[in-house]
Write a structure and sequence with these properties.
three-stranded antiparallel sheet, two-stranded antiparallel sheet, disordered C terminus, single chain, about 180 residues, alpha+beta, Alpha-Beta Plaits
Length: about 180
């Protein structure tokens, strides 16, 4: 056998090998490599413990909620809404003129910065007791203004009750704080 025919035979066999077996070998290597990448990704995700959801509240607190809580519960997205409800609970004396107190308090809450005036401020009776009438003021604001509106509304409520001499019951006693000379 001549050297040139041997080289020619060697080139023929190498070409046959490249076209016949190389794609299968390369495919097996790629399959093995991708499988390792997938396993590595799963292991990495497993080490991060995907068992909780992390949220940031409006007052910059980090809140961890187990994902099991979300499985069968309804989730209400307050940040998606344009307005957030602000509830203020307070009491007045049962000797107080209810309509007068509602009017004064409503007028003062309308002046609080950030309160949405397109939504009517509501003041409703939530409970009646022997010495007091428990009221709830319901107003709305943008979610980003919630904490400042709540704080400023509470301050306005206290100031109004002092300035307009709205009687408030003393805690756990049948004694009234008399702001007026009645």
């Amino acid at each position: 056998m001549e050297v040139s025919s041997f080289i020619q035979l060697l080139i023929t066999k190498a070409t046959y090998f490249l076209f016949e077996f190389a794609p299968k070998i390369i495919g097996a290597i790629l399959f093995f490599w991708l499988g390792l990448k997938i396993i590595k990704t799963i292991m990495k995700a497993g080490s991060q413990r995907i068992s909780k959801t992390v949220l940031r509240s409006l007052d910059h607190r980090t809140i961890y909620i187990p994902n099991g809580k979300f499985a069968g519960e309804t989730i209400e997205n307050y940040s998606h809404e344009k307005l957030k409800r602000v509830d203020l609970d307070f009491s007045i004396s049962n000797r107080e003129d209810l309509e007068r107190a509602k009017e004064y308090i409503s007028n003062s809450l309308e002046k609080v910065s950030g309160v949405d005036l397109n939504s009517k401020i509501k003041i409703v009776v939530s409970d009646l007791s022997e010495f007091s009438i428990k009221l709830q003021a319901i107003l709305f604001c943008r979610p980003c203004d919630y904490f400042s509106v709540k704080t400023n509304s509470q301050n306005a409520l206290l100031e109004t009750m002092k300035n307009f001499q709205v009687l408030t019951p003393m805690a756990r006693q049948g004694i009234y704080s008399l702001s007026s000379g009645n």
